[in-house]
Amino acid sequence: METNRRSFLKAGALGALVLAAGGGIYRAVHTPRPQAFVLDGEARAALGAIVPAMLAGALPGGQNERKAAINNTIEGVHTAISNLPLSVQKEVQDLFGLLALAPARRLLTGISGGWANAREAEVTACLEDWRLHRFALLRTAYGALHDLSLGAWYAQPANWSAIGYPGPLKELS
Amino acid sequence: MSDNTIPVKPVAGIIPDPIQAGIARGWKIVDAARLEADRTLDADVVIVGSGAGGGVTAEILALAGLKVLIVEEGALRSSSDFKMREADAYPTLYQESAARQTLDKGIKILQGRTVGGSTTVNWTSSFRTPVPTLDYWRDRFGLTGYDSDTLAPWFAMMEARLHVGDWQAPPNENNDLLKRGLEKLGIEPGFIRRNVNGCWNLGYCGMGCPTNAKQSMLVTTIPSALDHGATLVTRARAERFVLRGEHADELLCSALGLDGVAPTGHVLRLRAKHFVVAGGAINSPALLLRSGAPDPHGLLGKRSFLHPTLISAGIFPQRVDAYAGAPQTVYSDHFLHTGPIDGAIGYKLEAPPLHPVLLSTTLNGFGQRHAEIMRQFPHINGMLALLRDGFHAESPGGTVKLKDGAGVLDYPLNDFLWDGARRALLTMAEIQFAAGAKAVQPAHETARSYASWAEAKREIAALPQKLHMTRVASAHVMGGCTMAGDAKRGVVAPDGRYRELSNLSVHDGSLFPTSIGANPQLSIYGITARLASGLAQALTGKPAPRVV
After folding, report:
1. Is B169 exposed, middle or buried (0-12, 13-18, 19+ CB in 10 A)?
2. In whole angstroms, how far apart are CA A157 and each of B99, B371, B382?
3. What is the chain B residue with the closest CA to A120?
4. Is residue A172 part of a domain?
5. Which pLDDT does position B2 carry in this prediction?
6. Is residue B334 located within the same domain as residue B433?
7. Residue B12, domain member (yes or no)
8. Which of B157, B418, B457, B525 has the fewest CB neighbours in a 10 Å radius?
9. Is B369 contained in some domain?
10. Predicted confidence band at B3 (pLDDT cuts at 50, 70, 90)?
11. How far is CA B108 from CA A144, B175, B351, B470, in A?
């Protein structure tokens, strides 16, 4: 896995090419939908792997609570994306489309199996790479996933007590 | 019979809602989302946008007896909707769900999109346009009639209208830390005046004032205009003007659905003798670009400014509770005045309110390290440095472009700005340590949490100041429809008229030839009050009404 990730880092121009083409490929093989963002199977699986890595240290310990918390956050991400302008929804759709394409996923993330089987350490390593990557496109992809995941988590009142935030005045909220 | 397509909701809760009351007494409001066919509407003046510029203009023109129509892209929300929750407020009240960004995604932009525009969600900071800024406009842009003596009565009128005054309560701890840190360093703090009336000191201005204390356009000028017969069209996106030679014939708008995102397919044609563009910087130049407005000197959309803003988090032993209390009450202009205005870039210091979504998305990193800082939330002090852009050859601002028809700001960050970013992050860390911080973490991808000023000084100086590495934000979008004394320097004349069109004016922050160097709302109120009064007189042949 580490090897794959490193080989991606060396992939350089090839990586950029795939990345640039990825959105286009995705759009070409899927029904064009300039309208609303759709969170379909593999994209949902990608979020299912990315959200726990982003929220490590914030998620609850118990397995059921953890699963429910992740699912609530994925729903929150979905809602947040649905509220974006359609042109931005298209950009996010392209990003998830790319993450869902197996060859692109392997090349860009180093994650060889499907997202459903990704280990948290692999995902964390991938996000760390993207965060400081020399390709602006990967840094912005990281930025979008960062804001969507963390924003959807801390938007939920259930997660406020853990950070000592009392929430707004109850009489008015 | 009525034009009113907004259903009246029964008023619930303990705070009277002036908007629901206005609807109940027959305000003319058309919610475009509920239109079931195309619609044509006529007025003397159509105003695009209901924010600072549009609101002020609407009231003055309506008081002058003109038939005014205001068209707003956002929805009509009011105190009974404002529940102080980020999850609701950002999608419903902000442009692009508060996730608007510059083209290369280097700067996040907070801009309002609701009735009242950014004034509905701003933090109430009220400054008159600084004299050095006006002097620069006179010297470099030929705006000779924009000296502070001439503008003073206009600022005074709008301050009275919007209840701008000194803040009587003590600053909250978040602001007081800025004050104490400055004082430790021998710098005298300034105190911010606010446009509030009966403020509860809650700290949720950014999510819409739940008590109607903030004297935004939503509760002042817009209701006044509607009481004087104006029509408000909401959830309608101004697409383009139909131009015939030098004349704007009509404005085509697309109705947005109830989600405020997808167009329904219905079109509104708005006809008027005169049009006022007040959609805010980015949106105003974008509308004129989409319309193919004549621009012989290639200036439209250029010189768009942001006050690119750097952020520093200080962790304190005591509780700061930066979410509670009036969000901005202390400031310093010291670092605007350490050099000449056209030298190395200066910055204004302020404190931001912190709420969980705003803070968590602003803090860099993720996972364990991020969660650890978030657990210290009540102990975090936020500090902001707003770079005063637009006063130097190396600070020409950004350019509004069209991407899939939507306005997007291309604002490259260059070494001139990065130099300011580095100095600003150093200054803020020094102030936070002086105020007693046990740790300081600048909003930067490779910054760590520093335990002393000595360490921070060494490390921050060495941080790579680069795109996506340094967190840069903006809540002040200005320029793009530059106003200037001659056509070679500005597409808009000093009277607010678009030079190449006979019946179109621009009345918003997009007029400014540079950034303001202060939170811009009062600059927009005062300057557009003057422009609107001139327009009222020109259109009616009678002296303009006064709003107070």
Report:
1. exposed
2. 21, 16, 22
3. B367
4. no
5. 47
6. yes
7. no
8. B457
9. yes
10. low
11. 11, 23, 17, 12
Residue type, A121: A
Residue B270 bridge partners (DSSP): B41, B251
Distance CA B17, CA B272 (A): 31
List the one residue out of B510, B515, B483 whose CA is nearest residue B499.
B483
Please tell me which of the candidates A56, A151, A157 has its beta carbon nearest to residue B361: A151
**What's the pLDDT at B497?**
98
Using CA coordinates, name the residue in chain A closest to B402: A87
Task: Please state the rounded mean pLDDT for residues A53-63.
Answer: 96
CB within 8 A of B426, min separation 6: which ones? B456, B457, B460, B461
Q: How confident is the model at residue B12 (pLDDT cuts 50, 70, 90)?
A: low
Nearest-Cα distance to chain B for A133, in Å, is 10
Q: What value does the mean pLDDT of chain B take?
A: 97
The model carries a pTM of 0.94
Measured distance CA(B392)–CA(B341) in Å, rounded: 8
Taking the CB of residue B246, how many other CB atoms lie within 10 A of it? 13
Burial class (CB in 10 A: 0-12, 13-18, 19+), B375: middle
Q: Phi-psi bin for B117: left (phi > 0), alpha (psi -120 to 50), beta?
A: left
- Say how many C-beta atoms besides its own lie within 10 A of residue B405's C-beta: 11
Distance CA B508, CA B48 (A): 10
Q: Compute the average pLDDT of residues B483-512.
A: 98
Give chain B's domain count. Answer: 2
At residue B152, φ and ψ (nearest 5 deg) are -50, -45
CB-CB contact of B515 with B476 (8 Å) = yes
Q: CA-to-CA distance for B345 and B394, rounded, in angstroms?
A: 10
Residues 132-151 of A with CB under 8 A from B: 132, 136, 139-140, 143, 146-147, 149-151
Name residue B194's beta-bridge partners. Answer: B125, B165
Contacts of B459-463 with CB under 8 Å at 24 or more apart are B460/B422, B460/B425, B460/B426, B460/B429, B461/B422, B461/B426, B463/B422, B463/B425
Cα-Cα-Cα-Cα dihedral sign, residues B54, B195, B203, B198 = negative
**Residue A33 predicted with pLDDT over 50:** no
CB-based contact B361:A147 (threshold 8 Å) = yes
The parent domain of residue B332 ranges over 173-205+309-388+414-471
Query: How many residues does the structure list for chain A?
Result: 173
Q: Span B477-483, mean pLDDT?
A: 98
pLDDT at A2: 39
Rg of chain A taking only CA atoms, in angstroms? 17
A168 in any annotated domain = no
- Of the candidates B423, B354, B369, the one whose C-alpha atom is nearest the C-alpha of residue B175 is B354
Q: Give the C-alpha separation, B164 to A5, whole Å.
A: 57
CA nearest B225: which of B377, B436, B19?
A: B19
Q: Which residues of B174-183 are buried (b: 16+ CB within 10 A; e: fewer)?
A: bbbbbbbbbe
Domain that holds residue A98: 2-157
Distance from CA of A142 to the nearest CA of B (A): 10
pLDDT tens for B62-96 read 999 999 999 999 999 999 999 999 999 999 999 99
Q: Is the pLDDT of residue A162 over 80?
A: yes
What is the model's pLDDT at position B5? 67
ipTM of the complex as predicted: 0.95
* B406 with A85: Cβ contact below 8 A: yes
Q: Decide which of B429, B449, B471 is a domain's last residue.
A: B471
